[in-house]
User: Fold this.
Amino acid sequence: MKISEAIKFIIKSSFLKLKYNKKPKVMNSNETLDYILKNKCSLARFGDGELSIMEGRNLKFQKYNELLASKLQQVRTNNKCLVCVPDIFGKNLNKKILTKEEYTFWKRCMLVFGGMWNKHFGKHELLGDAEISRFYIRYINKNGIDNYINKFKQIWSQHNIVFVEGKNSRLGVGNDLFDNAKTIKRILCPETNAFDKYDEILNSVQKNCKKDDLIILALGPTATVLAYELANLGYRALDLGHIDIEYEWFKMGATKKVPINNKHVNECNSMGDCAEEDLDKKYLDEIIDKIY
Assistant:
């Protein structure tokens, strides 16, 4: 964001804080995970990218779209879907908990967008933590992550999973994160500007997925909207972008964000392109549709 644009947003944010002075109240990651396990609900996550779209800004991987912004503003927690925003409004935005990079990022985000968070989410009665799938690299103390991951794995244990993912995301490929699933299928979607294909993606899910399948989404702001809409159509859909990359970093003991072979890592400017002959046959056999 250019300095001039940031100043405009800071001024706007300051005025909105006066009008909307109630900060979002957010469950922490463990509470959010427990809620999902207990209620078997869908999950729609809002991060700084989704908020930026709602405020009329382009992202590196998703250009602003008026319909997308409108759909994002319609997403609300109900008994089928839990809405999540970052747990940055209380004691967990703490330099003793988060790495310097993570703490600085969210402090700046609060300066620029604090009023917007209040405006869009301050009145929500129930919010989970959008950082639920970012469980490793952001924290200084990484103890107990094994237990957290094992709890996470309970969600898809012995379920038929359908991944709706960017074409180079390749969730679970090369690791054991989803090994306890019953079956895995994949619908591959565009890595950038996925919302341009929203109707095709939604139609593909309805055509290829059963209502008792567990749909796991990794598709940026499009996943947020899609999780909510699928939940209202009777599917269970979890927006879990970044979960596979975090698991890869955890397994390698990474101390900073690094590229992963053959996987798209947006924050490292690594697109994950590779030749099809370099991909595992099992992965290729899991693909049931491609929407590019």
